[in-house]
TrEMBL record, chain A:
GO terms for biological process: carbohydrate transport; glycerol-3-phosphate transmembrane transport; glycerophosphodiester transmembrane transport. This is sn-glycerol-3-phosphate import ATP-binding protein UgpC. PANTHER family: MALTODEXTRIN IMPORT ATP-BINDING PROTEIN MSMX, SN-GLYCEROL-3-PHOSPHATE IMPORT ATP-BINDING PROTEIN UGPC. One of its GO terms (molecular function) is ATP hydrolysis activity. Residues 4-235 form the ABC transporter domain. Belongs to the ABC transporter superfamily.
TrEMBL record, chain B:
One of its GO terms (cellular component) is plasma membrane. It is found in: Cell inner membrane; Cell membrane. This is sn-glycerol-3-phosphate transport system permease protein UgpE. It comes from the Bacteria. Residues 78-269 form the ABC transmembrane type-1 domain. The gene is ugpE. It comes from Roseinatronobacter bogoriensis subsp. barguzinensis.
TrEMBL record, chain C:
The chain crosses the membrane at residues 12-31, 76-98, 110-130, 157-181, 202-228, 267-288. It comes from the Bacteria. Residues 72-284 form the ABC transmembrane type-1 domain. It is found in: Cell inner membrane; Cell membrane. Keywords: Cell inner membrane, Cell membrane, Membrane, Transmembrane, Transmembrane helix, Transport. One of its GO terms (cellular component) is plasma membrane. Belongs to the binding-protein-dependent transport system permease family. SUPFAM superfamilies: MetI-like. It comes from Roseinatronobacter bogoriensis subsp. barguzinensis. This is sn-glycerol-3-phosphate transport system permease protein UgpA. GO terms for biological process: transmembrane transport.
């Protein structure tokens, strides 16, 4: 187990394409860090740089107290779970788990002990003699986990490990991976493009965009105080509504917006902060036309058109209201729930 | 109606049975001829029903050969053919696997150049550069040797291409996982890549074995010592060896024995054969 | 040309892996080929004492030599005849076998094995069947009033070698045609049937056009086969005769080089053959490229 230090890491491919720029990140021992961002944001590249599968062009990477920039993947004391599992198709589950240990010259008895222990932990004991193609997707996922587990490495690296599973299994494995990681206390770096996975699993979350870190923080920090419009749009579902402050100032009293910095020309509103209750004192009231009601069982999404505003505004209610499409609805919004941004730089203003 | 009608099916079966009969006919005639005593072929038309001399004829060709025409007993020739075919096959497979591995899994200066050097062999079948190739082999002192019979035929762009194509379809992550698991290039080659390629190797084995066994012009040129005659070229010596009509009963017994091994290979490994054949051309 | 996203890093290993193949290629392919090219510009005097550099004179002489021009013509007739005979028979078999369900594999087994027979052996087999004194075919043809003798008749000799060469190649063409037929979506045939096309019409308007890439590919492969792989058929049977009637190019290269010891001419013929192979290979590769894009 170890901490990981990234000091100004960068990656430039031969041909000059830049994938990662100036990443500074210290990961504490035992911490679960989730790298999240849209495809092409450099999150996988960053993970592969840590794994040693991509060379590091700039900066330095420490795992524990060793600089590992020039070490082979096998010598970095890390284990990796791949997106498509990358199980060796011609080997039994047992041999898949044992291969890395054999290559490191472990004694047979030790290999057996570790494989059995991992198999028990992951409940794949009865599959040890099977080939990967005889397993279901979820079982393969467990074997891939097992291969990382038996190594007892300083750090786990996960590269979108759940993206090939169906929705139900994904939730189940998400919980299992997180429990296991907490129990073992192994430092982990986890890449996903799924913001829900990121929010639920991370000790700390790293949002990447264009190869650079947008924001680092706990899931709740990122959710309640996104540092940039990019993070605001990426974390939370449905995404945060964005209105120009000019437009908003035309709708509500100046007093209601007195706490918003005057330079902030973009105001974000989370869909779940809008409610149909009558506005209380100090709350902002907004009226729009209901264009579409999406009931989703326990909650509903209301797509609204505000006069003079091009984009639709989405409200998310914790129930399905009894309203007809086309109706004019008035929403209330606590003043403190406004997220002011500078449109040009995308930075949060307060 | 898209389904087959009864008359259509009948007609199709008729055509096919006739077709199969024509395809088999030459070999049938050979088998029949190999069972007759020499006298049958002196006059009249060739027989279409088996004769009484099968055992005797086969015994003659296997143990005695036709010493007068300079062909040795065919036991030795069969063995030579087998050694040559195996050497060509195993040689081709190993050098192609290694070079395809280098081309796909490494990046190094002159990679493209080497690829083209190998590619050129596709364009230079031995028949078209026969004289200078013979000279090279003669200069190297490889006439009348198994090395001379096999090594010049070992380089094969086809096999290299096939393995390259196949390696490209092996998921990237397997190699990455193997590296994380501490496997170097040769360990990855041996533990992961070779086992995954086994069907392709087997399919190519079938095709190359037949190719090697059926070599004709090359052994004809570089063997003057009957010790190294192969069966396929030996037949030609039997047909044209004497001034008189060939001894058909013995020639045909030899033909049957020469054609049998590759035919058996195809019949018993039909699926691999079809795979090998159709994929080498893709 | 692609490699894997990530590659192994080693300064010397890839060269070591390539070495066996590259060395063999250099010694037995590239070197002899360049020798052929070099020798094609040389001529020895009749006593073999002096060798002169004669530029393109060997080529000029070849194209003025009626024997070589004859060989070109013979090769053309032989390869087109072999290709056409073998492909049409194979297509007929493939179409018939493709109709079958239960018996498909059995018929396939019966039709594929001639691939294993060496060209030389194929030659000997048909040589025997057509043997003018004891062969079954001349005997039957006599019944129709035809006096078969490939030892004296050029036409008979050509027909014999074409049959022998085509027979062996049927298996190969059959397998490719069958694979092609099986890859045609059945819904297309059904759509044509709904559009009112008869069975015969369906074949010529739907199936055959869809097979055309494979047909083209096989044409190239068969021409290459007939031109370069049939040495054994000729050598074991007619030996180019009678009167040069079956003296195809590869056989002539061999005769002129090894029997007549005319090295300059043989080398020039090698160079021309290599040029032909290169053209055919390029055509074949263009086809493969197209199929990849397809």
């Amino acid at each position: 187990m170890a901490s990981i230090f990234m000091d100004n890491l960068g990656k430039v491919y031969t041909g000059g394409v830049r994938a990662v720029t100036g990443v500074n990140l210290d990961i504490a021992d035992g911490e679960m860090i989730v790298l999240v961002g849209p495809s092409g944001c450099g999150k996988s590249t960053l993970l592969r740089m840590v794994a040693g599968l991509e060379t590091i062009s700039e900066g330095s990477l420490k795992i524990g107290d060793r600089v590992v920039n020039n070490l082979e993947p096998a010598d970095r004391d890390i284990a990796m779970v791949f997106q498509n599992y990358a199980l060796y198709p011609h080997m039994t589950v047992y041999n898949n788990l044992a291969y890395g240990l054999k290559n490191r010259g472990f004694a047979k008895s030790e290999i057996q002990r570790r494989v059995n222990e991992a198999a028990q932990m992951l409940e794949i004991g009865q599959f040890l003699d099977r080939k990967p193609r005889q397993l279901s997707g979820g079982q393969r996922q467990r074997v891939a986990m097992g291969r990382a587990l038996v190594r007892e490495p300083a750090a786990f690296l996960f590269d979108e490990p759940l993206s090939n599973l169906d929705a139900k299994l994904r939730v189940q494995m998400r919980v299992e991976i997180r429990q296991l990681q907490k129990r073992l206390g192994t430092t982990s770096l986890y890449v996903t493009h799924d913001q829900l996975e990121a929010l639920t699993m991370a000790d700390r979350l790293v949002v990447l965009n264009g190869g650079q870190i947008e924001q680092v923080g706990t899931p709740m920090e990122l959710y309640s105080r996104p540092a940039t419009t990019f993070v605001a749009g990426f974390i939370g579902s449905p995404a945060m509504n964005m209105l120009s402050s000019e437009y908003l100032r035309g709708l509500v009293s100046a007093e209601a917006l007195s706490h918003v910095p005057t330079q902030a020309d973009l105001i974000g509103i989370r869909p779940e902060d809008l409610s149909l209750a009558a506005p209380k004192d100090g709350e902002i009231s907004l009226t729009g036309t209901l264009m579409l009601l999406e009931p989703a069982g326990a909650e509903s999404h209301l797509h609204l058109r505000f006069d003079g505003h091009d984009d639709m505004i989405v409200a998310r209610l914790p129930h399905v209201p009894d309203v007809a499409e086309g109706a004019k609805l008035t929403f209330s919004l606590p003043r403190g729930k406004l997220h002011p941004f500078d449109r040009a730089s995308g930075k949060r203003m307060a | 109606m898209v389904e087959n009608n009864r008359w259509g099916n009948f007609f199709a079966h008729l055509v096919l049975i006739l077709g199969v009969a024509i395809v088999i006919f030459p070999v049938y005639v050979a088998i029949i001829a190999s069972t007759h005593p020499p006298g049958t072929f002196i006059r009249g038309v060739m027989p279409l029903l088996p004769g009484p001399n099968a055992l005797e004829n086969y015994k003659t060709v296997i143990t005695e050969g036709r010493s007068r025409a300079g062909t040795p007993p065919i036991g030795g020739m069969l063995w030579n053919s087998f050694v040559m075919a195996m050497a060509i096959t195993l040689g081709k497979l190993s050098i192609s696997l290694l070079s395809a591995f280098a081309i796909v899994y490494f990046r190094f200066p002159f990679r493209i150049f080497f690829f083209w050097v190998i590619f050129l062999t596709l364009m230079l079948p031995v028949e078209v550069r026969i004289v200078p190739t013979f000279q090279v082999v003669a200069d190297l002192g490889m006439l009348n040797s198994f090395a001379g019979l096999s090594i010049p035929l070992i380089a094969s762009a086809t096999a290299t291409f096939l393995f390259r194509q196949f390696f490209m379809t092996v998921p990237e992550e397997l190699m990455e996982a193997a590296r994380v698991d501490g496997a170097g290039p040769m360990k990855f080659f041996k533990d992961i890549l070779m086992p995954l390629s086994i069907t392709n190797i087997a399919a190519l084995f079938v095709i190359m074995f037949i190719y090697g066994w059926n070599q004709y012009l090359w052994p004809l040129l570089i063997t003057t010592d009957p010790e190294y005659y192969t069966i396929v070229m030996g037949i030609q010596r039997m047909v044209t060896g004497g001034d008189s009509e060939p001894l058909w009963h013995l020639v045909m017994a030899t033909v049957v024995l020469a054609a049998l091994p590759p035919i058996l290979v195809i019949l018993f490994m039909q699926r691999l054969f079809v795979k090998g054949l159709t994929e080498t051309e893709k | 040309m692609q490699t894997k996203r990530m590659t192994f890093s080693s300064k010397w290993l890839p060269y070591a892996l390539l070495a066996p193949q590259v060395i063999i290629t250099l010694i037995f392919f590239i070197w002899p080929a360049s020798q052929a090219l070099y020798q094609s510009f040389l001529r020895q005097d009749i006593f073999g004492l002096r060798t002169n550099f004669v530029w393109f004179d060997n080529f000029n002489r070849l194209f003025a030599d009626p024997l070589y021009l004859n060989s070109l013509k013979v090769t053309l007739v032989f390869s087109l005849g072999t290709t056409f005979l073998s492909m049409s028979v194979a297509l007929l078999f493939a179409v018939m076998v493709n109709r079958m369900i239960r018996s498909r594999d059995s018929y396939t087994t019966f039709l594929v094995w001639p691939y294993a027979v060496a060209p030389a052996i194929a030659g000997v087999l048909w040589w025997f069947i057509f043997n003018p004194s004891i062969g079954i075919m001349p005997y039957m043809l006599k019944g129709f009033g035809y006096d078969w003798n490939h030892r004296s008749s050029s036409t008979d000799a050509m027909i014999l070698v074409i049959i022998a060469a085509a027979w062996k190649q049927i298996s190969y063409n059959f397998l490719f045609f069958l694979a092609g037929l099986q890859s045609i979506p059945h819904s297309l045939i059904e759509a044509a049937a709904i559009d009112g096309a008869s069975r015969f019409k369906r074949f010529w308007t739907i199936v055959f056009p869809l097979l055309s890439p494979i047909t083209f590919f096989l044409m190239v492969v068969n021409v290459v086969y007939a031109m370069f792989d049939t040495f054994g058929v000729i050598h074991a049977t007619t030996e180019g005769g009678p009167a040069q009637a079956t003296n195809i190019l590869v056989y002539k290269v061999y005769r002129d080089g090894f029997v007549n010891l005319n090295l300059g001419s043989s080398a020039a013929q090698s160079v021309i053959l290599m040029a032909i192979v290169i053209v055919l290979t390029v055509i074949q590769f263009r086809y493969i490229e197209r199929r990849v894009n397809y």
